[in-house]
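A reminder before we start the practical. When you read a complex entry, don't treat the lines as separate problems. The point of joint prediction is that each chain is placed relative to the others, so the output describes one connected object in space. Small molecules and nucleic acid strands, if listed, are placed in the same frame. In the example below there are two entries. Take a minute to note the order of the lines before looking further.
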Amino acid sequence: MRITQGTFSYLPDLDDGEIRAQVQYAIGQGWAVAVEFTDDPHPRNSLWEMWGLPMFEIADASAVMHEVTACTAAWPGHYVRVCAYDATLGRQTTALSFIVSRPDHEPGFRLDRQETADRRIRYTLHAYAADQPSGERYRRDGERSP
Amino acid sequence: MIAANGRTGTGFAMPRPGAGGPGPAARPQPAGPGPAGDPPPSAGDGDGGPLPGDALVDLDEEGRALQISALLERLDAEFVGLAPVKDRVREIAALLLIDRLRARYALSSSRPSLHMCFTGSPGTGKTTMALRMGELLRELGYLRQGQLVTATRDDLVGQYVGHTAPKTKDVLRRAMGGVLLIDEAYYLYRPENERDYGQEAIEILLQFMEAHRDDLVVILAGYQDKMEVFFRSNPGMASRIGHHIDFPDFSLGDLMQIAERLLEQEHYRLSPPASDALRQYIGLRMRQPRFSNARSIRNAIDRLRLRQAGRLVAAGGRISRADLIEITAADVRGSRVFNDTAARPPDRTS
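Here is the predicted structure of the whole assembly.
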């Protein structure tokens, strides 16, 4: 099941040229761009691991593309996203966030039902990937995690 | 266009506070996401396959489309002298043009390495030229942004183990898409201290210069002799730099032209005797120690302005606009340079 999180998530995966153009737009807006990664696909997991510090004062998207490539290579089988932070007074929030790299195979989620008092049912999402310890999820056979 | 809700708009927009004006960091940019920074399109390519081998293309027409001659004319008008630099820019521009044409015949055309090293005496325009180079290369389509990031040893080399790499990489990231000018690059390497972190910065620089040739142009600037020593101890650096450009010293005529231009920018005018005196002054100054070409001229002009102001205030009374503009021979001959030499003119008035 394909994870849909952030902007453009219902579109086909962006290619490098499209990612570069989006990042360039973000830089042009004066946003600080950061690269983040995770292997916990739960939709409520909003704080991903940071790949270095956010990039301030950059002028060209190639700096971000360089970091995206480095992050993807260092963390194969992880989700990698690009975030753009708008520091404008009154805004101070993530202005743009989209996934740029995802594992080849995404097993998806199962729905857990929990019986509670008075025959009530609580529902929760459980990612199949999360059955494995972090670092070993989405791993293909024979592939070593970093 | 008036949107249905009565506000002017061009599409969907989330209401957001502070959207009235551009943010502090906002820069002019195309209105929406899109392929920004592509090289300027050339005339008539992109349609159909490669041209047949016996077809002819119009070099002049393609050149006009790229506006190369206008660019070179502007360079000529802006900088006095500096023939070797202008020649090199002309060659780079010509290569761009030829590559565009080669691409139309489906011949390979890879981007040349554009890393440069500027050497020359003090005040010959190395830093000024580097400032313009980013802009030039962007207009030629070799750089996407063309911004200039200036770095010295302090910006690249850290204070303790593990501090250098992030610092250097941060500077390199900021410079991507443009020009990184490393002024007085030889200070990066300190042979007398083997625990110096400069070597680490140099290694990261070399790696980036090789891997990101398309994204970044590195310009090293410095004095000739010290640069020689630097390259001798870092042969990898010398071989990765394609353009070693030596800035020649300015001739008397060049310096005179520079002086006139600077005065014109400041809205001053030399009286004809003052012009002769200034020529004489520059001739004398050139023979003195610590003469630093255009920089000395700029300093001399600052002193001219001081002497003119002193003269006008001392005279007092009513003065006209012409008095404020004109610099007289007396202002020029007030300089210490005339005092120090035997060639002191008899008609010195102040």
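Discuss with your neighbour: DSSP finds 15 helices and seven strands in chain B. What might explain this?
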